[in-house]
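step 4 of 6: structure.
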Amino acid sequence: MMTVTANSVFIDNQPVELNGEVNLLTLVRKVGVELPTFCYHSELSIYGACRMCVVEIEGRGIVAACSTPPTPGMRILTNSPRVQRVRRTVLELLLANHERECTTCEKNGNCKLQDLANRFGVRKIRFGERDMKLPIDDSSASIVRDPNKCILCGDCVRMCSEVQGIGILNFANRGSKVQVTPAFNKKMAEVECVNCGQCSAVCPTGALVVKSQVNQAWKALADPSKVVVAQVAPAVRVALGEEFGMEAGQIVTGKVVGALKRLGFDKVFDTCIAADLTIMEETTELIERLEKGIEGPLFTSCCPAWVKYAEHNGSNLLKNLSTCRSPQQMFGSLVKRYWAKELGKEPKDIYVISIMPCTAKKFEAARPEFTVDGVPDVDLVLTTQELSQMIRESGLDFAAVDPDSFDMPFGFTTGAGVIFGASGGVAEAALRAAYEMVTGEVLEQVNFESIRGFAGLKEATVNLNGKEVKVAVVHGLGNAKELLNKLNSGEAKYDFVEVMACPGGCISGAGQPQAVDMNTKKARARGIYHADKLSQLRKSQDNPVVAKFYEKWLQRPNSHEAHETLHTSYSTRARITGEDIELLNSDREHKVDLAVCLGTCCYTKGSYDTLQEFIRQAERNGIKEQLNLHATFCLEGCENSPSVRVNDQIYGGITAERVGTFIQEKVLPELERNKE
Amino acid sequence: MAEAKKVREDALAVPRRRFEKVNEIIARHGKSASALIPILQEVQEEYRYLPEEILTYVAMVMDLPPSTVYGVATFYVQFSLEPKGKYVIKICDGTACHVRGSDPVKEAIRKRVGLKNEKHTTDDLRFTVETVSCLGACGLAPVVMINDQIYGQMTPDAINVILDKILEEEGDVK
């Protein structure tokens, strides 16, 4: 029995010693009472919106435990009749505003709201239902947003702004009309969403879910004309087991392969071998930069959410982004470009399905630059969750599935390829390679402990032939943003920076089984490093199959052939789509559509003067009535601003002085052409 | 219709003086997030409403997510994301005005200016009709405010006389 001291509080009449707890919620949970909550996440700020964690304090009444600090002597009741009554009413009110089509919901069986309604025995809702139905937003490649299922806990809002530093979602309107939405009620695909899906990872309901493509996978598997191959990302193997009652972090690689084969995949390959290949390419790129003394750190490019973030945030950053495609895309490219040929097949006859921990990979696979002659390198991306759905649907007993091994040639991997799944893994694998490539000596101690783990910024310095190479690792785009600011101000200086958008890296991807706490993520990371330790080979450069690829197909790292197959290029993206401001509107039959960009880059380079000059010159040339003149938000030609679009053609560098010639050379001929 | 287009063009004819004004407003208030509301107030004063492009612009300049600026702009009743009419008619629906019949007055106004359904502003951008909670002139209930002018003890007939006069001034005699 605990003794009562001056520093005690009483929880349900039991004395409990205070030990620096900042809120009642953590204190109550510590004594083994699981207070319910929707809006409390240890990694996010305290919001106090959902009111589910109410407790009764003697002399004070009902308070929200998450936002009440404990004081000595406090008497707290966690399950008094009053608490029960309030809690149930809160839950009923939330449910009254929530679409209750549970059976057809993507989150069915995995929904916190459903779970708590069940736990508190809500069998009837005394309040009516909301009669207004809001449109569902499925514009994004990765996420589906159904505002009818939103309970306004704000978890996604805080995740996106606090952890990811982006903030595409926020509360809008007030009172009964409040909604969580992107700016101006735009669709997710129209704003600077990077598809990381972390919003859906914290959403307690079906308001934000990963876009399911399971049906497309079944369809491909049933198509006899396709050779269906799977590639499995590193982080999947330490998380899929959770969906079937296994411990987090348990390595289930063999079972994943076995299950995929039983589902009907013709070949099951390992994305890790493409990760090894990425290391060969990226490390070569890094060394070349170091030798040439190119300014600014080289940023990794494996994370598609980070790549999109970089594209939204300026051309300065893009020139330092590694040109390497991500392992997923390198894999797809190799399979369609070379392996298909060896099989005597056309690329279109091979159907590549990636199993990924990641929602942004869906967007990445759909990028136009990764489609050759109408055939995508990666046809479909399924998340770990979607694979578990398929396994359940098929009726396979995952625990009893016989382990199998990956098929060759894309089946042999090193530990370096596996650790891509955790934050710091790419940098560590690159260091293992860089050291040997530069010094020519064998690296005995391959572990770079300082860049492992969950700290926001991790650093390492490695001496490569007398040159101190500084490496930084960040995860969570909010941390990346902070680091970028430091780099820009000159406060920090690095040679190589690894960025992963999800906190903790791919193991915490939004496609993984929903992880309620940090312990799950830590266990997955341990699983990853354990898999590395168990690997026969731990360095990408030792992978004999990768060496074979170079010999057979790619010549050497960063060769012309390798560039064609394994590298890519980037372009800037507008941060938000905006409606044009129409300045002149022609109702003539023969007209020209002319848009002047007033986006940030163009504006600062004087696109206003350009716009004004167009109006003036149009008048002078007598074509004012034949112009549709808009001011638009971004034509995505930021490197060569100010940009102007004539019909569908974009021209850069159109300053006010050039407007006269531009009209003569481009606008008038276009008008002539229209008349013909 | 052509006239409506003309009014809209006038209202949206951005040219630089107006964008420069935004820069000037932001420069005066500074770029800290706490200055957002006063900035939006002044921007609205300048443009009569908060155009989306300009809100996006304000967000970018202040290094705030556009969703945050949108959230603030939609939270407060004083902000409007729709272009407002030349005549902004506010009908008080506070308790005193309500019991003395503000509703029939509102209906009369909406009918006279031709507003249907959920709309607040006429297509020609001439009239905006909105309800407010209290204009603080309960002794004159029901009260209507047209731009800066207060009209007390309104009835459907009385407001029609006032509106007729405005429409006449606008050259729209019916």
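step 5 of 6: annotate
 - The CA atoms of residues 319 and 548 of chain A lie 31 Å apart.
 - Chain A has a mean pLDDT of 91.
step 6 of 6: archive
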